[in-house]
Design a protein that fits this description.
eleven-stranded mixed beta sheet; Nuclear Transport Factor 2, Chain: A; mainly beta
């Protein structure tokens, strides 16, 4: 399992993420101060198991915190290759842009200017990713940090072992900060209809998905995950390679505690266990072509704020 999630705040659908983009484009700022990096660029590298990958481009988005929507994080994506402008159309979460590419490192910085999430996509990892949440490996040193721009560096103290990999980052960057599209509020008692205790049809679809993940049933996973045109189009071989990773991150013994539906959207509040610790999940479901599918889910070891 190639993940490290101290807070167990997990987004389990890296293989079907990239569901949303950003309405602004990543145009470079024309004015550059003397001796300053060009906005939108990075200089440095990430090394995993002795293989270096250069990081050349920098993107940043101000987006809601995954679990505390009233707080704003700054997400930074540093890539080997440039990302097309159209990838940022209507984005709510910058990581969804990253998973459409290969070769990058992603950070989230909280309102106290501390890194809280670190994710790497690197050739040494194949179809998997190295994820750290709560406790990250790279220190962030800011050079400039305001509403318009973030510049500085991410650097590990030394090459260190993260699970089964030797990990090292040393990169400076300068990125204009774009504003994420605010997500549509989840259905609640005021805007939607309460689902039955078992979650109704959305709940049935979600529990079938979880069983399929633990059985590594690729055919069922494809049927219950978002439609291909909404996310990454991984091959069967790539998905098979990610099955162990997905199963390890998916809490067991899920139980739906509450849910609401509004037309073709639903939300399920779920509990489960991971590594013998109780977890709380918020699962967004969407109805496509007459069938309920899992759009997105987030897990934490603290209960989410639920709608009354």
């Amino acid at each position: 399992m190639k993940t490290k999630n101290n807070k167990n705040a997990k987004s389990l659908f890296f293989f079907v993420a990239g569901l949303i983009g950003l309405s602004l484009t990543v145009g470079l700022v024309s004015e550059v101060r003397a001796g300053e990096m060009t906005p939108g660029t990075a200089s440095g590298s990430i090394s995993i198991d002795g293989t270096n990958m250069k990081l050349n481009y920098a993107y940043a988005v101000a987006q809601p915190n995954t679990f505390e929507k009233d707080k704003t994080d700054i997400a930074v994506l540093l890539t080997e290759k440039p990302v097309p402008d159209e990838a940022f159309k209507d984005v709510e979460d910058l990581r969804d842009v990253g998973v459409r590419q290969h070769g990058w490192v992603y950070f989230e910085i909280n309102d106290k200017q501390k890194p809280i999430t670190e994710v790497a996509d690197h050739p040494s990892l194949g179809s998997e990713q190295l994820q750290m949440s709560g406790i990250t490996r790279s220190d962030f040193v800011q050079k400039e940090f305001n509403k318009e721009r973030i510049a500085g560096s991410f650097k590990t103290k030394a090459a260190e072992k993260v699970l089964d990999h030797i990990y090292e980052v040393d990169v400076t960057f300068n990125a204009p900060i774009l504003q994420a599209k605010m997500p549509e509020p989840l259905p609640d008692a005021k805007t939607g209809k309460a689902l039955p205790p078992d979650g109704g049809d959305p709940g049935k679809a979600y529990l079938n998905f979880v069983r399929a993940v633990h059985r590594k049933d690729l055919e069922t996973i494809r049927k219950l995950a978002p439609l291909p045109e909404e996310g990454i189009k991984y091959t069967d071989e790539e998905l098979k390679g990610a099955m162990e990773f997905m199963a390890a991150l998916t809490p067991k013994n899920p139980r739906i505690t509450k849910g609401f539906v509004e037309r073709d959207r639903a939300v399920l509040y779920v509990t489960g266990t991971l590594e013998k610790e109780k977890q709380y999940g918020t699962v967004e479901m969407i109805k496509k072509e007459g069938s309920w599918r899992v759009k997105k889910e987030s897990w934490s070891n603290t209960p989410p704020e639920k709608s009354k």
